[in-house]
């Protein structure tokens, strides 16, 4: 394998620009992450995409905002525009826990050091650039900008915020995955079209000043949502906006959205169609070094990179539409899959890396088993407005064949340098249950499950039923817990048949909208009865652009506009958590009093029978949903998924 030269990375300093012989730059990209030149890291993808269009591009990773701001001026003024992203995760999720405590580590910084990414990084960087270079266009994108493109609730400030275009002072926003809109933006700029005239590019948003004419496009229909000022005064009207926003984000033929913000008008153009196979292949096959920039060699490893160094992303998008998750809001509902040939070419690159030991850490996507899945009749999908293809039931038009994925796994494993390939991404277990996935071939589902269990996991299979309460699951857009029981039956059958001794690790979430204390008692009792004793859990974290967050703030379900209760106080959240730890001495009296008060002696008898509990060993289960952390593996968040893979789990069936 050839040795990398400094010029194999995008330049980050004036010295590196001069080494390339460049006198000026076309685009300068600012990022809240350290620079890792890998297709799982959004800033690198955007830089390489712009480079592929013939532009001279430099990147300024984690610019300092606590000094004389020289990082924002050191590379001069670009010919076309500044580009800004907060990084692979929303900076507030990177910087704070669900309880709003500042995190001790930042996974996207060398050595995990904190303090290199400001809160609300996209707005901070963009405002600095507009102050210093008011006449140079600033284009923002990435997950922070994408999910804050309209009026949204910000959990960390506990406020309703306007579009990030207002707070950042940026000129334009690209939402979702950036390859397609960037291509059109660059093509128009290279033809001499002024940046201010780029008003009809799909998948972009911008603000019109009072009196400015609305750009004309005869192919688009328009729809107006409640203004920011109305949202501030009326929570129910704020909630009503979300149905429109979510449906138009997921439609293949969407409308242009307008929203009044103070004296200006927000314009959100419709999204591009789902990327074609050749388009997504091209994005993943750009000349990445797949390594952090050499400037970090003496600063320590970058945790997020170490987690995904030997992983392969095979598709984007998720048709699950879970009410707490932002994947479809950012990557889209429809699946964009890479070709098998493209995946195998990347496998070969990884296999020939000098420190590769033969083990791929993940072959996956946002949901590992959605590869190559799409509508059987495209015209039906073209008209669909449903936020989920598998809730409340699996759409009869959805092809859920797991055969292409099984064949891909087998092709990867046939590579002479691959000893084992793991599936580290979350698997939708409900799609593997014939009783739920009624249109699928049961044998094909079993073949896939057996393939995963026998060849692609190391002792534990992680799935996410999320809850046991049907009303809560319905709001989550997740299937009934009975299907987890059905899946466990199939899992146990294969376990015995193959003498595997594998463990099934379910993830759960507490404090979700519609979840009552009694629901958590049911969850604790049912999981205990199945042989699980939970040790580590995480509550629901409200993040922009999800149904659950809208409910959390407003108290109304955006689709029905009916009042929906959410645990919000510290006391309510702590009480829900206590049921996970029914076995701890300090919780037992409280549980007895609580369940007696609501007349649920049946649950009390399951959780705290008079006879002494025997035969238990802990299962360290961590709930999936901090939503941004779990939106994997988009190039904005793929690197975060390995944190769950590092957890140690132990379980033991209850002795009968």
The fraction of residues assigned to DSSP E strands is 5-15%
- Fraction in helix: 25-40%
Taking the sheet with the most strands, its summary is: 9 strands, mixed
Number of helices: 25
Strand order of the largest sheet: 3-1-4-5-8-9-12-11-10
Q: What is the gyration radius calculated from CA atoms?
A: 25 Å
The end-to-end span amounts to 57 Å
Low-confidence stretches: 611-656
Instruction: Please tell me what the overall shape is.
Output: globular
Helix and strand content put the structural class at alpha/beta
Averaged pLDDT: 91
* Count of individual beta strands: 23
Describe the overall structure:
Residues 632-656 are annotated as: Disordered. This is YgiQ family radical SAM protein. Belongs to the UPF0313 family. Residues 642-656 have a biased composition (Basic residues). Its cofactor is [4Fe-4S] cluster. This protein is an alpha/beta fold and 656 residues long. It is 34% helix and 12% strand. It contains 25 helices and 23 strands. The strands form 8 sheets. It has a 9-stranded mixed β-sheet, with helices on both faces. A two-stranded antiparallel sheet has the order 2-13. A hairpin with a 2-residue loop joins strand 11 and strand 12 (264-268). Helix 9 (235-250) packs antiparallel against helix 20, helix 15 (403-413) runs parallel beside helix 16 and helix 19 packs across helix 23. The protein starts with 13 loop residues before the first helix and ends in an 11-residue tail after the last helix. Residues 611-656 have low confidence and may be disordered.
